[in-house]
Amino acid sequence: MTGKAKIRKQLEQQLAEALSFEQWYEVAQKLDELDGGLRWREEGETRMLHESLIREHIRLMRQYRERGRIADLTQVLQESLYRHLGELSNPDLYGVARTGTKLIVSEFLDEVRYSMNYLCDQREPDVSAEQKLQMFRDAEKVFGHPALMLSGGAAFGIYHVGVTRALWRRGLLPEVIAGSSMGAIVAASICCRNDAELQEFFEHPGRAHRDALHWLSPADMWRKGYVMDQDRLHHHIRVNIGNRSFREAYEHSGRTLNISVSPTRTRQKPRLLNELASPNVTIDSAVLASCAVPGIFPPVTLKARDRSEGGDDEIPYMPTETWIDGSLHGDLPQMRLARLHNVNKTIVSQANPHVLPFIGHRFEQGYRASLKQAASSIVHAHVASLLELTRNTWSSSVVRPLIEQAHAMATQTYIGDINIQFPFQPSLYRKVLSNPTLEDLDMFLRIGEQATWPKMAMIEDQTLVSRTFRECIQRLKERAGAERQQVEPIDSRQV
Q1: How many CB atoms lie within 10 A of CB 105?
Q2: pTM for this prediction
Q3: Which first-to-last residue range defines the signal peptide (predicted)?
Q4: Do 15 and 99 meet the contact criterion of CB atoms below 8 Å apart?
Q5: Tens digit of pLDDT for each residue in 434-468?
Q6: Which of 21, 89, 167, 462 has CB atoms 3.0–4.6 Å from 173's, for a disulfide?
Q7: Which residues are marked as active site?
């Protein structure tokens, strides 16, 4: 082994053993320097970017900002942002160096942020804070928001806590979060807590209730038709997230929770439950339904707050319908999220055990990865076609619902714009349907954090504009409120 190879092996070992993002990044920089990644970042030339145009737009934004030419700055900012948005989202830009992409991308995004903050904070005689606030809100609506999507995964889904903790500590946790099955439990645990409570949750994850899964006796399995105690699971959900409705959780945390549930009737459609579509539905019933894996747990009737006479009772929601595991029909409901919440970027945390063996190669490079992708695509197409033929042949059979569920699982998409994946480790599959020990919990959280750190630069860059919009709108809200308070005393004297 050469000296360089030995150093690389040592650094890779240190990278795998890093206990924080800061440690990981320091080692990643050394590896990038060793492999030429830092030199690649400094070089502007690449076929993936229109370098000369980006540099021209940086120059114009800086010039107009320094000279106070607001109208010109607004125009070039809009033009450059939408002109380069597609190429800056290219995942290949983040496939060379561990610590980030071309430095010119960072320079461009920094200038976009400076320009947006300048337009937000610059006082204009003829434009009130309220008017500017509305302008920024309109622009944000056009641009869109990022969303975090947490897949199912049984015990593997605990790793979502590590993913979200890593994002939270870097200020990158989106306000829109969706979850299905185990991902629904984690998503609800986050969206039912305000910032102070969430900080406590991430600092002391071992305090969470962990006793969710309990096998029934063989006699009860035979009599009930499922194998695990749903009451135990419901208790686990209630202890960890409470019993708020979607609207109550949004008002408490400011985060928008979305939970996928699948129908038991073939004529019914899967639903994405949230504060907009189902504000009074109780989150614990939605999570319980999203976790109802057929054969493992029974279907669930959703519950909702009864607001008809100002009461606080729970009543059945759509009482003639029952719902099951959200990951069967909508593990990652990207289209519905985009329509409801104007989502322009999806960050996917994927931990489904049946998906992991088939998607890891999608993010690898080289001819071997290409061969795996081709083989996987062929197998996927054949399975989907076979299930399509089977469900048509058995259209009136009692097994039709099972075929429908298998077809839905085989044909849905399991990746998004930015993908964080639980590593495929066959030795861990024995833990899929077991309650985690404290050691297991720490392991799953560490896996989640370590899977997130290599994606951090991409997430930070590709959500920067959305985050800047959010910060500017918050400042303008405060300024508009202050302006209203200054006007009100004058109005009262006039009256």
Answers
A1: 23
A2: 0.88
A3: none
A4: no
A5: 999 999 999 999 999 999 999 999 999 999 999 99
A6: 167
A7: 181, 325
